[in-house]
Amino acid sequence: MHTAAVLASAGPTLAPGLDGFRIILHVLAATVWVGGQFTVAGLLPTIRSLGDDAPKKVARAFGRLLWPAYAVLIVTGFWNIQAVDAKHASSAWNAVLGIKITVVLIAGVAVFLHQRSTSKVGLAVWGAIGALASVVALCLGVFLAG
Ligand code: HEM
What we know:
Elements: H1 3-9, H2 17-48, H3 54-83, H4 91-116, H5 120-145
Helix pairs in contact: 2-3, 2-5, 4-5
The site of protoporphyrin IX containing FE (HEM) has 25 residues, from helix 2, helix 3, helix 4 and helix 5.
C-alpha cells in the first residue's frame, strides 16, 4: 500500500486497560498537585476574609491532599518509565526525563519550604517556585508521552 494510504488508515487508537489506568492515576494526581496550587492561590483573598486563622487552616487541609498526590506522581512516574521501555528511548527523551525528575524534586522542595515559611517573602518566593516548577513538570510530561 502507498505510505500516504497507510498513514491515512492509521487513525487514533485506544490505550490498553493497564496503560490507561497508569496514565489516569498519574494525570489525576497531577491535577490535584498542579491544579490545587492554583485553585488555593486564587481562593486566597476569599479565604483571608473568613478570619485570621483561615489561611493556616486551609493550608493544613490542603497539605493533606497535596502530599498524597505528590507520592502518587512519584510512584506512577517510575511505573511510567518501566512501562514505556525507557531503556530503548532516544537520548533526547532520556534528557527530558532527567530534567523532569529534577524539576519535580525542585517543586517538592519549594512547596515544602513554602508550607514551612513564616515570612511573607518566603511564602511568596517558595510558592511561586513550587507552582512554576510544577507547571514545567506537567509540560515536560506531555512531551514525554509523545
Ligand atoms: C509534579 C510532578 C509531575 C507532574 C505534574 C507530571 C505530569 C505528567 C503529565 C501531565 C504527563 C502526560 C500524560 C499523558 O499525556 O499521557 C506525564 C507523563 C509522564 N511522566 Fe510525569 N509528572 C510528574 C512526575 C513524574 C515523575 C516523578 C516521573 C518519573 C519518575 C514522571 C515520569 C513520566 C513519564 C515517563 C511520562 C510518559 C508516560 C507515557 O508515555 O505513558 N513523572 N507526567
